[in-house]
Amino acid sequence: MSFEPRNPDYQARVREIFARATFVNDVGIVLLGCGPGWVEAELELAPRHVQQDGFAHFGVQATLADHAAGAAAGTLAAPDEAVLSVEFNQSMLRPARGKWLFCRAEVLKPGRTLTRVESEVCAVDESGARQLVAKARVALATIHLRGSLYAP
Amino acid sequence: MSFEPRNPDYQARVREIFARATFVNDVGIVLLGCGPGWVEAELELAPRHVQQDGFAHFGVQATLADHAAGAAAGTLAAPDEAVLSVEFNQSMLRPARGKWLFCRAEVLKPGRTLTRVESEVCAVDESGARQLVAKARVALATIHLRGSLYAP
Amino acid sequence: MSFEPRNPDYQARVREIFARATFVNDVGIVLLGCGPGWVEAELELAPRHVQQDGFAHFGVQATLADHAAGAAAGTLAAPDEAVLSVEFNQSMLRPARGKWLFCRAEVLKPGRTLTRVESEVCAVDESGARQLVAKARVALATIHLRGSLYAP
Amino acid sequence: MSFEPRNPDYQARVREIFARATFVNDVGIVLLGCGPGWVEAELELAPRHVQQDGFAHFGVQATLADHAAGAAAGTLAAPDEAVLSVEFNQSMLRPARGKWLFCRAEVLKPGRTLTRVESEVCAVDESGARQLVAKARVALATIHLRGSLYAP
Lengths: 152, 152, 152, 152
Prior knowledge:
The structure is a homotetramer of 152-residue chains. With 152 residues, chain A is an alpha+beta fold.
């Protein structure tokens, strides 16, 4: 599907959504690229990312899936709008391990009050081969900002 | 509901589920207590936990909700069984901010192959007052271990 | 939790939500009672309600869970507001069979734009004993009506 | 993705999954076609299918999405296995109205104990134009049958 951004500076907005989210930086997630209605991001897995059995923790995958989804919704927001996750569901298809986690988030349906985004999370090995490990659907509410940091 | 643990050392198992999950320690989540079918955990919020608008990031809430759910399912697992999250859904009821996040996870339905747990996440202010900010339901698969670290 | 209805005639509204929904009547679902923030409804199971293995079809359980949730949200809506399901998730805890299906829906969090409701579906046998078979969480959007049938 | 059916008579199995589900027939859902890992089905909308505001009831959409998902999982089941929906989530993207509802269900990830399927529901108008109105993800458990009607 092709979307028309309402904010000509949507790429700066996406960079801001990543730069200002301290938790996302703390976890090690980095923005790879974006376009109207989509965002790609990744994470290099480290020993601090695992759950009790040595797999990437659900929370790492969910943080990646959700933040990429929020940024994908952000590509279609107007300059005076912010988006906030209100409903999130994720299926974990395989235990996740590898060198990186990669995520592509795509808007399924933009909306005036609710935008729906789907995120696919892949485990990536040394050779760059990707395997789908999780799929999420996120509903994000549009918040109208007045005099916010986003709307000068 | 009242449940009968199949592992007499289930409390040691729960402590292990927290101690071995590096991501959970990295985020700052601590175990408060547990019993058959339930776990309580909390997190002191810090500047590194926020999303782009200054609220606790969804990923922080989801990590807390999921890990407490996994440990609650773990209280009812046999010594040679592990549990792994396979489906997760969460409703974010209010933007989350405060001094702490508190979570109570309770088993809704244990099962031979799938256990369902519900987690409530509350924001807690300086005075200790709690406000429900998110609710999750998690489906966890039972994995039969052979010669694992859990089953000596 | 206790809620204050904004529509003094909320009970008439709930009866209307059931009376006007032809699919709900076609399936055989009947309203049992309601109060501010909750609704109870039931269905007598018949041979036409099953899936391929003889259990009550998921669709029967989901129709009951969703419609009761919508009516529960309706108890808290203003006279010029309607509610529409936008997100629905349900865990099927046990195969459902029995003489009736009973559902209680309770508002978890009302909201200006989104209301969250939880529905529990029980199978009921001849003796009246109830067993929880499914649990759902539903997000409903508030729609502001102008000159609708609901707002004279 | 391409899948290898383990049951050479999987098409007969799918026809049976539709023929034996009385609720699906009662609602008016018909099988259109199937292949390894996918099923298509539709429903002609009638006055008996609506909710209180005249749109196709959520329950109609969910019954269609779930049953097509179950049949899609069934295309990959072995002759002595049945599948049962255990987790279901659906996003309603637009109010649904039109002459038909069409659904395509595709297996996202088959599994020994859990299979995940995605279903898209479209409203179809007189001209045959389709508009996506809902998207669901369904987790189905594999049940091993002994001496069942499916396994002679």
